[in-house]
Amino acid sequence: MFHSRLKRVLPLILLSLFFIACGGGSNTNDPIHPGDISTQKHEVFLPNGVNIITDISSTFDGAMFYADAPEVQAKALETCPLLAGFAAQVSPPENLTEALSVLTHLLTKLEESTLLSKVTQLSQYTLQEQNAAKLLLKLSFSDPHPLTNATNRVTSLLATPEDDLTGLPEPHPDESESHVFILGLTALFTSSTDLLLTGALCTEEAYTSCMSLMLATLCPSNIRPLSASYREETQTFSLKTTTQKADLVFVVDNSSSMDRFRTVIPKAASELEDAASSSSLDLCLGVITTDSDLLSDSNQDGAFTQNFLEFKEDLKAGSSGHENESGIFFAEKAMKPKGTFSKAKSPREGASLSFVMITDEPDHYSSHSGTPFNMVENLFFQKSARVHAIVKTDSTDRDYGKTYIELASRTGGRCVSIDDQNALKGFMEQVVHDAETPAPRLTLTQRAMACSIQVKLEESPLPLSPINGWTFDMASNAILFHGKAIADTQNGQVVVTYTF
Fold it and tell me: How many Å apart are CA 350 and CA 347, to the nearest integer?
């Protein structure tokens, strides 16, 4: 059995989160209270504005929570919630000992449920060192439900062995019903037998507004032992993010459809050479394709080169590709710890890492991975790698490079139409300039609670956002910047406050 610690006071702690208000989608700094949910062995920290429903049943070691519902009385919501969910300590199903295996088991349980007509996996993320994993799912219910009832049903299905929760809250009378919901689900093993599950639901329509709140709520760093003590830390970073070294990788579509764009590739290489010649940048170049992570090496003298003649030889596109090309998948594969970049000793110490993706097709990431590309948590963000794209930029074109364009935007990269060769000169000049000013990456000295982090630039709060703000990478304990925030933080002073 658990108890709530909503009223407990810990003077040393001031936790805050950029909380997204219902309907507005903007972020504000609000304090949060410590130890929102207590299980037998752990505490789970949640954002301000989240109310806790306790004493649901004796089989449930945790609590349910509702965001943007100011009052909860007699287990009846006084307003319509924006986001709802649960946090609970559970017994590992089927004696599983890996977080991802647990989530895979729960995914199967959802797929077999008669409540749901369809379950679609949107993304997957694993923190191997912490034995934690996340899934993002789209749940299509057979019948429409208000968010409160959908959350009740999912919690009953996933968080208790008997599937018999009682005393669940009633929805607000004005809650609208929906068939489709987005579920974020996190599993964390704190020992071989102690498993914490956290889930958060919102309607599909509200996901854009809820994304940042869901990110902060589901981070495993918010889960701490009952006996833990806490302190607040403030770090100031004076950002002067320039470098004299850059590793730049071209990712080239080598399928037969690129025949009509053969001149784009050598033109891009020549414009890059011209731009680099007027820069003092120490540039190292590599080439992979949209259907392989293997680095081209025409001279067999090392895959990365500083010789533009060799680079142009490596860059020659073939016609051995297929219809399911994915520059994003193979670039990410190459960046993995034992991937082809690591074997080629890239990126070099102190060098920025950038990609130029050239293709006339949309990205087919899921054809290789089995799941869609995770636009919120991925290796491009973790490596502070910029992505630039030479793709189809007309949104009405069936070959529109939507995923490439969005990834370029979130990593602070550039895009140009593959149909507009005249734009390549200015594009490559920007690629070289951006390589000299890599995206800031702020490594924290203490293991931060995600929901406690505040980030300010020159006294102005920066939003928690994977689109135009910052996110927290638990694996590296670092603050990452995205989109507009990359340029905003160049040569500025950033202050990060958090609890550990």
Answer: 8
Region at 75 (left for phi over 0; alpha for psi -120 to 50; beta for the rest): left
CATH superfamily to which 245-436 belongs: von Willebrand factor, type A domain (3.40.50.410)
Strand, helix or coil at 430?
helix
Superfamily grouping for domain 3-230? Mog1/PsbP, alpha/beta/alpha sandwich (3.40.1000.10)
- The pLDDT assigned to 403 comes to 96
Which element (helix H / strand E) includes 328?
A: helix 327-335
Domain boundaries, the chain: 3-230, 234-240+440-499, 245-436
Percent of the chain with pLDDT over 70: 86
Q: Are 435 and 492 in contact (CB under 8 A)?
A: no
Q: Are the folds of 3-230 and 245-436 the same?
A: no
Task: Give CA–CA dist 220/206, Å, rounded.
Answer: 23
Contact at 8 Å (CB) between 275 and 428? yes
pLDDT tens-digit map of 193-239: 899 999 999 999 999 888 888 888 999 999 999 888 889 999 999 88
